[in-house]
Every structure is written in C-alpha cells, then in structure tokens.
Amino acid sequence: MFGLATISLLVVSAVIGANSLDLQRADLRQPQRLALSHAGDRLLTANQKSGSVSLIDLTTHKTIGEFRVGQSVTSLTTLPGDHFLLTDPIAHEVIEIALIDDQITVVEQIPVPAYPQRTAATLDGDVIYVSSLWPKQMTRLEKQANQWRETKRLTLPFAPRELLLLPERNVLIVADAFAGNLAALSTGDFEVQAINQFPAHNIQRMQPADDGESVALAHQMLSELAFTNENDIHWGMVMSNDIRWLAVDALVKQDADLYEGNRMHSIGEPGRGSGDPTSIAIATTDDYAVSMGATNQIAIGKDHAYGIWRVKVGQRPTDVIFSADQKLVYVADSLDDTISIVNVKRRQRIGTISLGPQRERTPEEKGEAIFYRGLSMEGWMSCHSCHTDGHANGLANDNLSDESYGAPKRVLSLLSQSDTAPYGWLGKSDTLQVQIHKSITQTMQGEDISAVEANHLASFLETLALPPPIDELQQTRDDAQVAAGKALFTELSCVGCHAPPTYTTPDVYDVGMHDKKGNEAFNPPSLRGVGHRGPYFHDRRCETLEEVIVGQKHQQPRDLSDNEQAALIAFLRSL
C-alpha cells in the first residue's frame, strides 16, 4: 500500500510522460522548491498543491509550461543531463523527470517508504538517498542496468526531512523534521555514524559552507525559560530565528559539542521578528539568502560580515535560489503562486513571475494561510513555529494556558485533534476557536484575528490527519501482541482516562504529577498517533514509550511482566 516492500526491483526504466497543463487555468500550485536547468536559463518549481512542475524561461522571466507529474510535489534535486528528482508524499513515490526542448517527461516513478520528503544524489546520479517522514526511515537506491533498485533501508530514532550529501567526506547529513537531531550516515555502509542534538527545531535546507568544512542551516529555537510576554517576545527570547554554521568534524562524531567551531547569525532583531526561516542558499561570492515564511521576506547577507538586509517578497516564501551568475535570487512565493526576483546588490525585489491564475480558496485553504502567517507580536513566530506542519516540535514553552507563568509545558500535536475537546494541558478551552484566540493573544502576544478568520483556521486544523500507526509504516506490527496489549489496556483501566475511540476524555485527572506551579490535574492528551510523538508528559520527562511503561510505570495498578509491557507498548504504537 505504501511502497514498503523489501529490497527488490522497483520500477521499469521507461519514459511515462507528463500532462501538459493550460497556463491560464485557475488553480492553487504552492511552489515549494526550486531548481535551475544545467544551462541556468530555465527555472523549475515543485508545486505541492497541484502536483505539477512549472517551467520558467529566465531570459524572458515568463512561465512557459506547467506539467502534472504527481499528486503532490514537495522537493527538487538536480541530476546530470537535465534530469531531476521529485518527491510525492501522497503517492509515496520518488519521481524522476527529464527536461528536453522545454518539455518535461516523467522517466520513472519509484515506490519508496511512505511520506518521502527530500532526496540527495551523488554527482553521477547513480545513487540517491530518500528521507521518509512518518516511518522514520532512510532509503538508498542505486541504478543498476538502467533500473532503480533499493539496496538498503535504515530506521532512525527521529522523523527525517532535510538531507545534505557531502561526497568528499563520504557522509550524508540528515536533519530531524521537528526537533534538533542531526544524524551523520556513512555512505559506504549506509549506517549511522553519529546522532547529535542541539537546541533547535524546524531545521530547513542545509547547505555546504567553508569549502565543505561546515554545514549551514536555518532553524528556530524555542526557549522554555522565557515567558510569552511582550518583553521576552520583543527581545527574541521566546523564539529566535537563526542561521547556523556547524563544523562537519563535530557532526560526524557521536556526543560532540556542536557549539565548538560553530557560528550563528540571528535573522531577527527587537521590533522586527523573522518568523519561520524556510530555506537558505549560499553563493560562491559569500552572499547568502534566507526565506522567512511568516514575514513574507527574505534576508540577504554575507557569511563573514555583519549585517542583514530584508527584502519584501510574496506570501510565505518557501525556497530561495541564486541565478547562474549569482546576481539575482529567485524566491518561491508559495501562497501567491509567484516567483519573486531579487537583485542581490541592490537588495531589492525587481519583479515577479506568475505561475498562473489562482482559483478562490476554500475556508480550509484560507485557514492554512493564517496558520503559516506571522501572527505573533513583531512577526517572531506563526502557529507553524511550534506546531511544525500541524504536528509538534517536542519542546516546551511557558505561556498562560494555565493562567500563570513559571510552569512550561510540552507543545501538543494538532493532528486529528478536532474531536478531542477540551484543549490545553489543563483543559480550559472548550473549542478550537477559543484556543486559537488564546494562542494568538496570550502565547504570541499578537493582535487577535476576527471570528471569521478563527473559523477558517479551525477548519484548517480539522483537516490535519494523523499518518498510519508507526508499526504499520515500518512493517513491524505484531497483531497477536497488539491484541494482547489492547486487552491489557482495558484490564488496567487505562480506558478510564483514555477512552476509545478518541483515547481521551474531557475531564482532568490527578495522575501523581504536578507542574512547577503546583497544578496536579491534567486533561489527558489523545493517544491516537502516540507512536509518532515524544517526549511524553507535560514536562517531557520520558523520551520513549518504553520509558513511560517500563520506567515511569504510568498509572499501573500492578507490576507488569516483560511480555505484558511489550504488549502494551505494541498496542499504543498501533493507535
């Protein structure tokens, strides 16, 4: 179902074709990633909403074609000979396309583990690596006799997204999609060489720097020590948005000090936040560009020089790329369906390229735009800043959800939460709309949105669905063990607080814990999708489900055998 077969022959190597679309048709495209043709005179866009690729003539700055290649397209990787790799997280495929005479054809559709996000390729294009989000898996594919074969699959302890291949070091850097984990995989045996963590989340678009000695990336940092009041938000203490250069020598060493030899540029300043860095590009001239999705800007600066210049672009920029001569930056304005053209020297937007007319947005799509907007005071953050793509960053923050400061609590996932009211750790919000208004005015200290906008945002949140259970995606589910765990879940009265089908209840309970302000009664988070979450509890005291059941023995009325513990964990991972 999800392309999770064992190592095997995957796809025949034959040109399949692509549907050429009418450039005048009204649609939503949402460009996510950009790539240049080999000659540098064509720009390709990966369009998430329409599953298409737009082709732009950079001599005329006109869109000259659009081609439907999948159900959703979220990344673009360049291969030799004007071939490109795309990821389709709905069809669970990697797609190889070819650009020939201003036409795009689909060469191969390659089933991979579910929810592929990014690809990386060797210089000769014969080996590619794929990150798959919810299965927490990496896949290596090799081209043998002109056919792609999966040669190895690796499961990680975190959900991977961004990739950076460093061929001169024989290492692949893999970034956590939600938290601050960075893994180094050796390309020789495709095994984990090191996993390190630093206090970051929403890591985006890694680039080689310093002649391959450093990795540059954009990210956010959420502090649980700061209060979500005007002072701490204004000074960037609650949420900072940064560019960081990390030494490769540290990244490839287990338990390394990632701060040793690193440097950082903040892309926010008091009074001018810089919410949600979404991509980074670095030129050989030492110039860099960073897109800021929440503030509709890009930042331009120089690596080893002080000062960042902001340039206004379109709505929610998601990618930046330098032109072949590095005098221009092209920006994917995802919510405007345009490409902004920015002059690097003048630090000015000098034009836009339309990908085509847009249709009217649905209430849910209007809510999506609000979700990614910099709603906070001074634009330091959006809803997405803590709830990455609707999920959670695994971190804690201190806000007024418990009507006090001094008791930071873990950020909750928003996936499949529309039927789990009340909301918040203390269960003080009866509807999504009430929680939305509180989050904007109390957590983000922003100007409140209208009731209509709150309804749109709630409609969008209602569309956020959970992926299938983790063991189903990893093909490790044991049905007999799950059944035993389900029976045990009822026997131990876990259903008292976590009642199916939502696996929560609307009350608050004293479960033997308290926060730093003395609160002892908490509303139980839904256990649906609990295998995709972690750490656990309001204070993040347990990293894994094993720690919850075996170490914490959470609310267990009796001691459990090893087999019972394993069965209960298997059941939780099946939800």
Automatic annotation (TrEMBL):
GO molecular function: cytochrome-c peroxidase activity; electron transfer activity; heme binding; metal ion binding
Start and end residues of each Cytochrome c domain: 362-465, 480-575
Keywords (A to Z) from UniProt: Heme, Iron, Metal-binding, Oxidoreductase, Signal
Database matches in InterPro entries: Cyt_c-like_dom, Cyt_c-like_dom_sf, Cytochrome_c_Peroxidase/MauG, N2O_reductase_N, WD40/YVTN_repeat-like_dom_sf
Entry keyword annotation includes DNA repair: no
Coiled coil segments of this chain: none
Keyword Transcription: no
Transmembrane segments: none
Domain of life: Bacteria
Protein name: Probable Methylamine utilization protein mauG
